[in-house]
Amino acid sequence: MQKAAQIFLTCLILCSCKTILTLSMIEKQADSIIVEDVAFIKLGTYRGFTDAGVEYQKTFLLQRYSSAPWAESKAICKAFDLDLVSFETLVESRAFLNMLDTNSALRTLASISVWSDGITLSSIGSTTDWYWSKTGKKISFSIDWLPNQPNGNNDQQYCMCIARHDFSSTLKFNDCFCYGAYRIACQRTQFFLS
């Protein structure tokens, strides 16, 4: 990703939050500090194997200052050369849910919704007809859905988010209105060749 695009997007984010940094300070540290310290909170790292046996590692980051609809969230991740979160396995998805649940900044929020890369083409609230939009790959594991979800909500919820609606519940997956403004979770993926 071009350094200028990262700087521009970061300036927009910082200005909207009334944080003052000079452009020269941002330029000096554009490649390392901005992604993980200024624009994002690092949630954690997960290392595992795909269904095909390929080893990978993902670093999960939560955008600090903004919420956005699903398509804009994908674009924000892409501007930082990242992707909206997706998961290779059930174990990885549960590890990510745990990272969110144990994050000190998020623990204080009774209700939270965070975007994932999941989409559906089904209008009936199917629990199995979900795909990762980046790859088009059907999700191959059972999703930990919130109770009575996904429900499609009158054929209007096609995007997958991760949500908690009160302090007594844990974060789980939910079908959401794609135009809803939710928190943005991005990932950096690295694959290892054997």
UniProtKB/TrEMBL annotation:
Q: Where is the signal peptide?
A: 1-17
Residues covered by the C-type lectin domain: 70-187
Arranged from A to Z, the UniProt key words for this protein are: Signal
Top-level taxon in the UniProt lineage: Eukaryota
Cross-referenced InterPro entries, in alphabetical order?
C-type_lectin-like, C-type_lectin-like/link_sf, CTDL_fold
Name the UniProt record assigns to this protein: C-type lectin domain-containing protein
Q: Which organism is it from?
A: Chironomus riparius
User: Highest lineage ranks of the organism?
Assistant: Eukaryota, Metazoa, Ecdysozoa, Arthropoda, Hexapoda
